[in-house]
Queue: 2 jobs
Job 1
Amino acid sequence: MTIKYSVIVPLFNEEEVINETYNRLTTVMQQTHESYELVFVNDGSRDRTVEIVKKLCNSDEHLRLINFSRNFGHQIAISAGMDYAQGQAIVVIDADLQDPPEVILEMISEWKQGYDVVYGRRLVRKGETLFKKASASFFYRLLRSMTSVDIPVDTGDFRLIDRKVCDVLKGLKEKNRFVRGLVSWAGFRQKSVEYVREERWAGETKYPLKKMIRFAIDAITSFSYKPLKLASYIGMTLSLFSFVYLIVVLYQKVFTNSTIAGWSSTLAVNLLFNGIILMILGVMGEYIGRVYDESKDRPLYIISETKGYAREHALVGSHNR
Ligand code: UDP
Ligand code: MG
């Protein structure tokens, strides 16, 4: 039997929301009157998430579980879901019901109109801290200004993609994955649907500041060389200034008597340059680290078990994509 829709849900310590999410998604997907599957990817949760999903699996043949051997990260969980999804249209949605499942129906109707990518655009973000909203807004705009790929602002991973887009994404081998950027990069006919981002239904955000920063750096470095260029621009500008300063120093030495060399100015220049050199090295390190990651060619994720699949699909272990 061919499956029409796959809904991918990444899960990391979501025991408090999982039942509600399952119920809401099931209600919505049943309204389509077409075949569907729910692909729950457990990203190394340390709470009861897996147990709850397993229990749900026993009573519902629509449900699949992909259980990672540890926490690999949100973007990788989504990628695994895409590797396993069997549907003709694939939807990615967060587990916490911030993205209302009902919007999926709108996405499906756009897909039926012939769009290959239908992404959700957040009009309002409810119940998130001012800091989160401001940093997210800044991040999307910064990213946009830095890359030539047309990545829409204020959109998350809540989107529907056609089978052919999913196949393109499956073929992309990169390890540092910024999925929504990759979807934009792939092109195809894209359309947005607008929605209000709700509060998290229960539990706390699984994206603390540290993960958010990692995510932002991954996004920017995967899609832009501008930071590297910035490093060389800063370098060039500063060498120009220092050259001018060198002339001033030489002039003073040769033509004036005021050569009581200032200790503080020497130190200041030194500190400034050292700081900038370290910063530039750091930027380069980010990129070199990524080259290293890619060259190791480790699998993107490791699966410890799956549930809800016929035996031929139930691959366990690591996957070289
Ligand atoms: N998530 C995940 N792995 C992680 C962190 C988060 O699979 O390491 C999942 C999480 O369970 C949720 C989605 O990614 O389904 C988005 O996370 P969250 O809602 O905490 O992020 P926020 O909405 O606060 O940005
Ligand atoms: Mg959330």
Job 2
Amino acid sequence: MDDTKTVLETRLRAVFDAVETGADPVLRPSDHADFQANGALALAKRLGRQPRELAAEIAAAASLDDLCETVEVSGPGFINLTLSTSFIANQLSAMAADDRLGVLGSEPENVIIDYSSPNVAKEMHVGHLRGTVIGDALCRMLTYVGHHVRRENHIGDWGTPFGMLIEHLIDVGEEKAVLELSVGDLDTFYRQARASFDSDPTFRDRSRARVVLLQSGDAETMRLWQILVAESVRYFDEVYAKLGVLLTDDDIVGESAYNSMLADVVRDLDGLGLLVESDGARCVFPPGFTNRNGDPLPLIVRKSDGGYGYAATDLAAIRDRVGRLGATEILYVVGAPQAQHFEMCFAAATMAGWLPDGVRVAHVSFGSVQGADHKILKTRAGDRIRLVDLLDEAVERAETAIAEKNPDLDAATRGSVAKMLGVGAIKYADLSTDRTRDYVFDWERMLAFEGNTAPYLQYAHARIRSIFRRGNAAVPDPGPLPLLTEPAERDLALALLGFNDAVTSTLGSWNPSRLCAYLFDLATTFTGFYENCPVLKAPTDELRTSRLALSDLTARVLAQGLELLGISAPDQM
Ligand code: ARG
């Protein structure tokens, strides 16, 4: 099917182009009409013409009779478009018959999306929530519109801390250490290793020697390192399973995967004349990056001790992703504090020619999750909160909330719905916040059945499904055109037709909060419809079928929209 807004824009653009090419009739939903085009203002300015006059000329020349009831010039030179009911009805029935619910396909790109990326032998805290959940939602949407998506979990599995971690593993004893790590007590393990390193000079020496052994690929050292990686990955998998994200072990491409490429990266940068020696380290100085004093900032690729740093690995990864894997787009879903690191890596990679034209890279940055005090979320005892504990608590709280709301639900259903609601609530609270902003973690708000929350949307979906159950009604064929006589029916129809735009604009900004805002608006609009338009008790059979069709399509869009966010929608709750 053709997207409603796109059809209108294309028609108008043709007329704009006849006046002057390159003009853009951007359409927005409007309070005064279904859509408002405001492009005539800019065009008039450019041509030195009177904007209302130009708008009137364009409105008259555009043949929109088959799509619009009225086309009017308003304000300083806007063009207000009110769609005809038959066009809306046709669009809607095409949408209902479409597997992708009217969401347009994109020219396929090879997208690599680097997200989650926790560190071996370190706990997954609430800070890892955002990257994992936002990255996952973007993967789902990118795939939905037809891109080839490759997930990469760039886990931190290499570097100097592993000397100390391996020595600690030896001290604790393999068996006991594995036990500690397998129950997810990663923080204790890391903290104890750190404490020995800080207090015991012998341990410190051993750790340093161990790093050298690790870097030289010593077999026994690699075996011990492998234990740490394997146990951590097993633990990450447990968290991912609870969270319900797409990541699997196949997606792990840790920092260590690039070891064999680092020497080449440095050699090639050197060959290109991009390396500068600074305090014994070998650095790239991408232009435009300075510190507070205005001095050029180095991107260190090889440290003064000969080791390679985080930046070298990321440069190797860019080169490999573009050169070997053919990525045309690379997205890094990583917290805002790493913004400068990525900007500098992208700049250095561009200087080296590893990011040719036509390859797009972006740091999809996000803000932090805070406690009520606007600081990092902590437990009452002052410890950082583990992500698993947060998820378990969410499910518990959801179970209580469901028991209150629907005491008749059998225990098994209640249990499975509680998982969808609890985890959904956490994910949705995260996704519905503009990703660049920080937000305060708030149980009450995220689990509420009112407001822009997962439970509200899940409930809206389940309520529609219950209409069908109560009325013993079959889901109508997408065939017959819906009747849009009441304003509330028309409003709902227009809201449904906005699905493509919501997904497109989410992907245009990599900001899932846009899809969330859309779904919330759709659910609210449905409530308005349901209050004004009896469905099962509609005055005629024809109207009943039509309203059932509108209801079903709403449920499908809600379920699909939630699915794109990685959230399940139960049929009853
Ligand atoms: N492991 C890193 C951290 O916890 C994040 C890695 C992000 N991805 C990347 N390609 N640098 O900070």
